[in-house]
Amino acid sequence: MCLLAGVVLAGAMAADGISERAKRLHFSSLVIDTHDDTTQRFLDGSFDLGARNALGSIDIPRMKEGGLGAIFFSIWMPSKITGPEAVKRALDQIDAVREQVGKRSNDIVLVTTAEGIREAHAHGKIAALIGVEGGHMIASDLGVLRSYAALGARYMTLTHSGNAEWADSSTAKAEHSGLTEFGKDVVREMNRLGMIVDISHVSDKTFADVLAVSKAPVFASHSNCRAICDAPRNMTDDMIRALAAKGGVIQINYHVGFLSQEFRNAERAHPEWEKAIALEIQKRCREREGCQLIEGDLITREYVLRGDLPKVEWGKIIEHIDHAVKVAGIDHVGLGSDFDGANMPFGMEDVSMLPKITNALLEKGYSESDVKKILGENTLRLMADVEGVSSELNAGK
Ligand SMILES: [Zn+2]
User: Fold this and answer.
1) Which pLDDT tens digit goes with each residue over 40-85?
2) Distance from the CA of 339 to the center of ligand 1, in angstroms?
3) Distance of CA 141 from the midpoint of ligand 1 (Å)
4) Can you state the percent helix, strand and coil of the chain, rounding each to 5?
């Protein structure tokens, strides 16, 4: 029986196309994903992080299968929600993350530092972290920002798709010419608190203002290369170089609309499809945002399968990683999937497929230590740097 099981297992492993060397490297590395929207599913009530789910991309069984060592759960709501309601909803989401993680403490543990991630990993547990996706959630109040930090939030994306009251987004009409004076105070306070300033989604001018003000390196928690796909929330080569010069990291996003120019062109040529998809989502989910994000991915896939939208393969992720490495250098690129919040390419439907990235990078000729940097070591270095700046600022240096 044992012998037979062994044969079946060996066959399954060969069929996944991943070399033994890649598997060894992947499962001995600390793999970190800096952006996941699974939190929205926690709010639906019935979701269990500990069970293998048929839908979506993230749960503990599949994180283990994919060798994911640390995950940043995103706190998110549309930019139009502001003021006390935004604060209330953000606190509810932070609570939902803490509750889901707390219930599964044998497998996953909430941490807030680079050292915390390494420690969790050493104990065989997944590290969970919190990122706030959108400065609109602090209601223009540094006290609220400090409260989020105290509850465990370790980065904040300054804007989402709309402008914050104090920072411009890449996908809205400019109102503030980048960061306002208060926006600059937000960045300074984040430096002091040891929160990573996240420049994904912000306008090019906001990005430039952040680089001028921040004392710590910053990152893009889920952004791609504009040289390959011209989405305004992707980064130009000049921006990627400037981010790297400051010690930052660009975390590559797997969303097809940010990966593929062909996909983006097709979407732009048919705005009526976007409307039809939005209507269908509304029909299936009403106001449940977790459902909306998951169904959005499924419905978009239906458009691809019937030949309306182009099929984007997961190898596009490798193209963006490789381009970013050429521009920024090997120390400044990581992974920020956008799982459970975007439309995934074929072959990267969920977190269990992550070893393919390691395999592809080795096949491209990347050294094992360089692959480890992309998988997570660059993010750990960045976090330690941000924590160091925070300590210095708090010591009054
Ligand atoms: Zn986002």
Assistant:
1) 999 987 899 999 999 999 999 999 999 999 999 999 999 999 999 9
2) 10
3) 22
4) 50, 15, 35
Q: Which helix (H) or strand (E) holds 119?
A: helix 114-122
222 CA to centre of ligand 1 in angstroms: 7
What's the CA gap between 142 and 155, in Å, rounded?
14
* pTM value surpassing 0.90: yes
- The tokens describing 232, both together, are 């305004």
Taking residue 3's Cβ as centre, other Cβ atoms within 10 Å add up to 7
∠ CA(393), CA(148), CA(294), 5° rounding? 130
pLDDT tens digits, one per residue of 350-371: 999 999 999 999 999 999 999 9
Contact 50, 59 (CB under 8 A): yes
Nearest Cα to 163, choosing from 131, 189, 140, 187? 140
**295 strand-pairing partners:** none
Sign of the alpha-carbon torsion through 86, 299, 340, 386:
negative
How far, in Å, is the centroid of ligand 1 from the Cα of 71?
15
Q: Is 371 strand, coil or helix?
A: helix
289 alpha carbon – ligand 1 mean position (Å): 14
C-alpha 253 to ligand 1 mean position (Å): 9
Instruction: Give residue 131's Cα distance to chain centre.
Output: 9
